[in-house]
């Protein structure tokens, strides 16, 4: 069995005139990444390999998750091929994972992530938002052979945030 966790990078900043690949996280992105990283431990396998796009916002997100999960940051594998917005390219990178690893956590970009989870998962998702978490399982022994799998868990920052209801004025979770 192969397990894949896709995490979209957290919200990026547009404040500085940087190339797309160099944009860092915004304050909200940093906050959302910490919120999500602090709430996913129960949904993770005991061991995993962690890959990230080389875009600054994805690297920042991966570092926040690694710190929160006590994963040595030097074990994160940064791949230029994950700086893609196309699900077919994302699929090819995932299918290249060494079969010695049954569990892969990947930090990447939309629309590749949303399209991938809709093709390979069994639960339709309109949009995986920034810092969104989607876990898929595949009844395969080889990454190269993954096809339609099962969507095991979907968790978005909005699922974890408190807000005041406009109807009651009380906090809602």
Task: Tell me the distance between the termini.
Answer: 34 Å
Q: Please report the first level of CATH classification, the CATH class.
A: Alpha Beta
Helical run tally: 5
The run of helices and strands is EHEHEHEHEEHEE
- In CATH, the homologous superfamily goes by the name Phosphoglycerate mutase-like
Number of domains: 1
Low-confidence region ranges: none
Q: Portion of residues in helices?
A: 25-40%
Using the alpha-carbon principal axes, give the shape.
Answer: globular
What is Rg?
Answer: 16 Å
The largest β sheet comes out as: 6 strands, mixed
Sequence of strands across the biggest β-sheet:
3-2-4-1-5-6
State the gist of this model.
The chain has 173 residues and is of the alpha/beta class.
Overview of the molecule:
There is one protein chain. With 173 residues, the protein is α/β, with parallel strands linked by helices. It has a single domain (2-172), classed as 3-Layer(aba) Sandwich (Rossmann fold), CATH 3.40.50.1240. It is 27% helix and 21% strand. It has five helices and eight strands, in the order E-H-E-H-E-H-E-H-E-E-H-E-E. The chain has helices at residues 27-37, 56-68, 87-95, 112-120, 157-160; strands at residues 2-8, 49-53, 77-79, 103-108, 133-138, 150-155, 163-164, 171-172. It has a six-stranded mixed β-sheet, with helices on both faces. Helix 2 (56-68) links the parallel strand 2 and strand 3 (77-79). Helix 3 (87-95) packs across helix 4. The longest helix is centred in the middle third of the chain and has 13 residues, at 56-68. The protein starts with a strand and ends with a strand. The mean pLDDT is 93.
């Amino acid at each position: 069995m192969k397990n894949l966790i896709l995490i979209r990078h957290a919200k990026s900043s547009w404040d500085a005139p940087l190339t797309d690949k160099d944009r860092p996280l915004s304050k909200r992105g940093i906050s959302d990444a910490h919120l999500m990283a602090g709430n996913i431990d129960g949904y993770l396998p005991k061991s995993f390999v962690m890959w990230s796009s080389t875009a600054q916002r994805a690297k920042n997100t991966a570092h926040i998750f690694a710190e929160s999960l006590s994963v040595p940051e030097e074990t994160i594998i940064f791949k230029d091929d994950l700086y893609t917005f196309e699900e077919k390219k994302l699929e090819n990178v995932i299918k290249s994972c060494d079969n010695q690893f049954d569990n892969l956590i990947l930090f990447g970009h939309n629309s590749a992530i949303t399209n991938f989870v809709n093709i390979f998962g069994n639960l339709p998702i309109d949009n995986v938002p920034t810092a969104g978490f989607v876990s898929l399982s595949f009844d395969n022994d080889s990454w190269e052979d993954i096809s339609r799998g099962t969507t095991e868990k979907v968790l978005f920052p909005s699922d974890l945030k408190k807000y005041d209801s406009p109807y009651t004025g009380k906090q809602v979770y």
